[in-house]
Queue: 2 jobs
Job 1
Amino acid sequence: LTRQEEFYVIILGLDNAGKTTLLERIKTMYTGVRGLSPDKIGPTVGMNLGKIDIGRSRIKFWDLGGQRDLHSIWERYYPESHAIIFVIDATDRARLEECRQTFEKVMLRDEVEGVPVLMLANKQDLPVAMPVEEIKETFNKIAVDLGARESKVMPVSALAGDGVRDSVEWLYSRLQ
Ligand code: GDP
């Protein structure tokens, strides 16, 4: 009997990006257990946890809050994390610069060096969402320049579920 491998993934991003919605969507997709319905999801105060089994592995997700005063908490999780998901609200052009700066700060941390980074251009179900190419240009450059071992920007709708399975699979393949 081989021991199941366990991986830890942290889900980061500004408040309102869709981190909690994403985690609930992942849980529903992979465990068949319905998570919180979207109208029950409020701002993340502490953190939300989710675990899924995929292949022979178990992935544990931490959805850390996105409010500014919680960003310092993120740092405690970097050393334990095998991968990072950074969720971007693709409809929020007004906060794109704040989002970019926040991402850059994450990537500048030593503990993050060499870890696979998945950036999700979320809320693609809304017509006002920025195209993934636009987000790619800005964010993937930061990831590459600042030493991500692997990085990718993918379009998703955490709410509708589009792209979520593909993104989990990308992540899983990079954890092996
Ligand atoms: P968090 O603060 O990053 O955890 O964000 P939440 O998961 O609480 O989501 C913030 C708001 O955005 C909620 O009203 C969600 O229903 C909404 N939201 C999240 N993901 C999507 C999405 O893919 N599409 C749309 N249209 N709304 C979304």
Job 2
Amino acid sequence: MQRVFSGIQPTGVPQLGNYLGAIRNWVTLQNDHDCVFCLVDMHALTVWQDPAALREQTLGQTACLLAAGIDPTRHILYNQSAVSAHARLGWLFNCVVRLGWLNRMTQFKDKAGKDRENHSAGLYVYPSLMAADIHAFHATRVPVGDDQRQHLELANDIGQKFNHDYGVDFFPVIEPLIPPGAARIMSLRDGTKKMSKSDPSAQSRIDMTDTPDEIALKIRRAKTDPEPLPSEEAGLAGRPEARNLVAIYAAMSDETSAQVLARFGGEGFGPFKKALAEVLVAKLGPVADETRRLLRDPGHLQAILCDGASRAEAICEPIVTEAERLVGFLR
Ligand code: AQP
């Protein structure tokens, strides 16, 4: 069976983009892959995190992932910092990656903006730690949203450069698994900006733990334009907010955007938004309820992460030790 690795930053409550771009895909992949799912707290630290909040968010996300259908008995769920192999391989990869390659990463440019000098070096080398996360497990398939496509290409470049530099065929080629319809969910306030859990505006996103009333309110307030919905996809051109809401509806109801527009085209946004909120509540409501139930027993969540970390270590420790041997570290 092929090995899947994927991670999520415990920087807040998972949002709808995380769910449609990654988590939903993770749940399905469990049926026919060996899966390693990681709460990447070391990545989270690349921007300031309140320590107590980071701990709480790590447990919160664990609960959310379990509630969404991640099975920690058949697969592995743990937090990155508990397994030192990530940091060790990350360092080797920092010495393999070229500055020019990192300079091209659009996520760093987006997150750092014009104020580059004041961001952590960790944020800059984030992609080489991400490459290490995946290669430490010799994982070949990585389910991510479209925003991570460039980082995965870099992860392949790093793995292949390592192989070339040391004359080995050690790190395999990684295949990104990007969901076709919901690859990039956009902010509810600005259809040109990615939905993000750390966006300062809570109105910009649907959190996986939102109540039905919160979901309905956020969708009602979601930015739109004055035109009715078009009947065909071509009519969504130049209307990023409308396109995003239609894409969300389609993804949540397992339909295509064309099918959604065939039903709602010609109508104003009122009835469509009402139907969209209903679809979201039907799918996310049970996950939110189960998350709240699981959070009542943080000890149980911590035990799951602890068990996951030791099973993760058993896989990646020999791989990373071998990489260290290949570069000439004395053991
Ligand atoms: N808007 C999105 N649409 C589709 N997929 C998305 N993902 C994130 N946002 C969207 C996917 O979710 C997985 C986990 O993401 P992450 O937490 O590791 O980092 P991120 O992409 O930076 O997510 P956020 O929510 O924007 O976090 P913050 O605000 O902390 O930076 C990834 O597979 C990602 O593709």
